[in-house]
TrEMBL record:
Native species: Paraburkholderia sejongensis
Protein name according to UniProt: ABC transporter substrate-binding protein
InterPro entries per UniProt: BCAA_transport (IPR051010), Leu-bd (IPR028081), Peripla_BP_I (IPR028082)
SUPFAM superfamilies: Periplasmic binding protein-like I (SSF53822)
Signal peptide range: 1-26
Domain Leucine-binding protein, chain residue ranges per copy: 34-372
Length: 395
């Protein structure tokens, strides 16, 4: 009886250790497999250049690490989201369910990003947002598995509201594409501007991604405000800035906006953009060693100058790496990985930043002025600005 029970115990111990070894081997095997990144970005339409810059930035960081993060090669499953919110849920679900990606990376357009956040939440897939500023993503939709390496729409807009007031503007007309990003940007601007004594008299909109601005420009000329605040980006920003100058408004009514108005667009905007003031979490002339090495590497690799979108993509890869390194590449240790991402200090070309409790960068917002083909740094408009994350509860 004694012999048989000690034999049973020995057998059990052998089985357990075999099971443990098996589990450890499975983990090691998984940790050597490629990390599958579902890259959901716009590669056509008005935001296509932004999508390309984000992808370039992400891949540059991976390349700088020798093509691996925490020892794991990186594999990309690429999807053009066309900046179309109506296709977004289906596209994100396909990446998760059919292509079995380990994480979602995307996107540029706030409406598409909100749909991605819902899919990420429902399927508990890790999501890193490398641009879209939708306040909701780090507000009511916030979740432990959702991170952003860019900004909330509120952040640069709020900073510009203070700048516009400090320049003496009292009456402002706003103009934006009619969708979440533009509307939230105007709201953030208005919050700071009116708190400082200014008044937003009129809020004009055009449907996204229309670039016919003549009737709004006529309304602005008739209203004669002290300043105009606009949200446009990509090809739409190029067209708007050129039209504003061509309508003869540039030297009469100050034009303000978040820096998307002039980032990555200056070659195409030419003289129409000269002198414009914008606020953003990136600028030319930062004199940070990290920015200098990033710019050199980016220019060498892509034969292009980077912009804010490239920086955000680069930092998305840095954030992913921080999480992967902490768990030695084993993404099944999700809590430990998230914990490390929450505590990461990202050595960004924009300046180092940390994550807020809602997983959005706490960062300096710079005041920049267009000089030649640069968004030249003037000052820090808002130091270590954290998004208010209204409505975020992490549980
Ligand atoms: C957005 O939709 O959130 C967005 C798009 C382009 C630039 C900035 C924000």
């Amino acid at each position: 009886m004694k012999i048989s029970s000690s034999l049973q115990r020995a057998g059990l111990a052998l089985l357990c250790s075999a099971a443990l070894t098996g589990a450890a081997q499975a983990q090691t095997a998984a940790a050597n497999q490629p990390v599958r990144v579902g890259v959901m970005l716009p590669f056509t339409g008005t935001y296509a250049p932004l999508g390309v810059a984000i992808e370039n930035g992400f891949k540059l960081y991976v390349q700088e690490q020798g093509g691996k993060l925490a020892g794991r090669p990186v594999e990309y499953v690429r999807l053009d989201d066309e900046s179309d919110p109506s296709k977004a849920a289906e596209n994100a679900t396909r990446l998760v369910k059919r292509d079995h990606v380990d994480l979602l990376l995307g996107t540029v357009h706030s409406g598409v990003a909100m749909a991605m956040a819902k899919v990420a939440k429902d399927t508990n897939t890790l999501l890193i947002v490398p641009n879209a500023g939708a306040d909701n993503v780090t507000g009511p939709l916030c979740a432990p598995n959702i991170f952003r390496t860019s900004f909330s729409n509120w952040q640069p807009a709020y900073a510009m509201g203070k700048v516009a007031a400090s320049k003496g503007a009292k009456h402002v007309v706003t103009l934006t594409w009619k969708y979440a990003a533009g509307e939230e940007s105007v709201r953030g601007f208005k919050e700071a501007f009116e708190a400082a004594g200014g008044k937003v008299d009129e809020q004009l909109t055009v449907p996204f991604p229309n670039v016919e601005f003549q009737s709004q420009l006529t309304q602005i000329a008739a209203a004669k405000p002290d300043a105009v605040y606009v949200f446009f980006a990509g090809a739409g920003a190029v067209k708007f800035v050129r039209d504003y100058a061509a309508a003869g408004l540039k030297d009469k009514i100050a034009l303000y906006g978040p820096g998307f108005l002039t980032d990555g667009t200056l070659d195409a905007q030419g003289s129409a953009a000269q002198g414009l003031l914008t606020t953003l979490h990136y600028a030319d002339g930062l004199t940070l060693p990290k920015d200098q090495s990033f710019r050199l590497d980016y220019a060498k690799t892509y034969k292009l100058q980077p912009d804010v979108y490239a920086v955000q993509g680069y930092d998305a890869a840095q954030l992913l790496a921080a999480g992967l390194v902490a768990v030695k590449g084993d993404m099944s240790q999700r809590d430990a990985m998230v914990h490390a991402m929450e505590r990461a200090k990202i050595d960004s070309p924009r300046g180092a930043f940390v994550m807020s409790k809602a997983h959005n960068p706490v960062q300096d917002i710079y005041l920049r002025q267009v000089k030649g083909n640069e968004n030249h740094l003037l000052s820090v408009a808002a130091k270590a600005l954290a998004d208010p994350a209204r409505g975020c509860s992490m549980n």
